[in-house]
Design goal:
4-stranded parallel beta sheet; alpha/beta; 6 strands; about 230 residues
């Protein structure tokens, strides 16, 4: 019955590609052209996901190891993924979170490494009130549900408002985010995956991961949709 209703729905309201507006194919809201154009990351640093010519750990992470153990990023932050994330983040296109999460899950299911908990990067309450939603939560919810890993929404908080990281030069981002997070002791002894939409310098997830480690988290990984090269 559900399949029949779905077929009727698709006939009356054909699925549309969320990237270009053309007719979508299959179960994803993407056309064949946009799906083929998705900028998969490929070979990257195991710890920070910076693109590399060969597998390993980049020089920066060897010199200054991160407080998180490894980073999963499915895409480079390039067209059409950048467009999808921007519309999710600033134009309330929450359907994009469903699509991007589904693509992330398809890759994450191939990994044997599975965390105990998933924690989306929190927004400060003032920014959450202004935007109305947290894009990291919108990604993390379907990932948590499809992987069967518990989602923690209230054990981690952004305790002070910070400037938007993307508005700042790279050198100022570490100072901007310093001391911004607090977490409960429910993460003690746990393997935690931090979920966010984009990783640029990595200062935000590094600060959050350090606070988690200081509070007793056993292992911290980072899962992001896209990595800025």
């Amino acid at each position: 019955m559900n399949k029949c209703l779905k077929n009727i729905q698709n006939y009356l309201l054909p699925p549309v590609c969320v990237a270009c507006g053309q007719a979508a194919e299959g179960v994803l809201d993407l056309c064949e052209g946009c799906l083929a154009a998705m900028p998969y990351l490929g070979i990257a640093c195991r710890q920070c996901a910076l693109p590399l010519p060969q597998a390993g750990i980049c020089g920066a992470c060897q010199k200054n190891p991160q407080p998180f153990e490894q980073t999963f990023s499915l895409f480079r932050y390039a067209h059409p993924v950048d467009h999808l994330i921007q519309r999710l983040k600033f134009n309330r296109r929450l359907v994009n979170a469903r699509l991007l999460a589904a693509l992330m899950v398809a890759a994450l299911q191939q990994q044997q490494r599975r965390p105990d908990l998933i924690v989306p990067v929190p927004l400060h309450k003032r920014r959450l009130q202004t935007r109305g939603y947290n894009q990291a939560v919108e990604l993390a919810r379907p990932i948590s549900r499809q992987l069967g890993v518990p989602l923690v929404l209230h054990g981690c908080r952004r305790r002070r408002a910070t400037s938007v990281q993307s508005d700042l030069p790279a050198k100022q981002r570490r100072a901007n985010i310093k001391g911004a997070f607090e977490v409960d002791d429910g993460l003690r002894g746990k393997h935690v995956a931090i979920v966010d939409d984009v990783m640029t310098t990595g200062h935000t997830v590094a600060e959050l991961a350090q606070v988690m480690r200081d509070c007793g988290a056993r292992v911290v990984d980072v899962w992001v949709c896209a990595r800025v090269p």
